Amino acid sequence: MQTRKTRHQFFLPDHLSARLDAMAAEPGTSKTMILSEALGAWFERREDGQAGAQFGKALARQVRTVERLEQRLDYLTEVLGLFVRHQLTLTAHHPAFDPETQRLGQRRYDQFVRTAGELAARAPRVKASSVPSSQQEKEA
């Protein structure tokens, strides 16, 4: 199958012309082939750069959102750890609870586990506006 070709006439600096002549002197190559490949590679790099610029802002925004989420998760994990340590310290030397108190505690624990499971299943989206203002100021 034959392709159409358009003739172009242009000028090259002497040093590029000499390099093109040297490369075209190798068997199985031609100036047309070398220039076609070089232009194709140049156009691809340019298109890749434009695509990167187009998606770069959105990607940067997503990275900032993930970083905020990681900070909040670290904060919440630390708070939960402190709370558990506090509770264990408070209940370390208490006498055994009576049966009614044990049932009440078990019911509350079961409700806590159920609520935590429901919240985890929902996987709520966190908006940038829901970050506390003091944290936004630190990030700015």
Which key phrases capture this entry?
CopG family transcriptional regulator, 73% helix, 140 residues, disordered C terminus, mainly alpha
Short synopsis of the structure:
This is CopG family transcriptional regulator. The protein is 73% helix and 0% strand. The chain has helices at 14-24, 31-90, 99-122, 133-139.
Describe the model:
The protein contains four helices and no strands. The chain is 73% helix and 0% strand. By secondary structure, it is mostly helical. The longest helix is centred in the middle third of the chain and has 60 residues, at 31-90. Residues 121-140 are annotated as: Disordered. This is CopG family transcriptional regulator.
Helix proportion: over 70%
Q: Which spans of ≥5 residues are poorly predicted at pLDDT below 50?
A: 128-140
| Share of β-strand residues | under 5%
Straight-line distance between termini: 60 Å
Put simply, the count of helices is 4
Structural class call reads: mainly alpha
Major beta sheet summary: none
SSE sequence, one letter per element = HHHH
Radius of gyration: 34 Å
By DSSP, the count of extended strands is 0
Q: What is the overall silhouette?
A: rod-shaped
The chain-level mean pLDDT equals 81
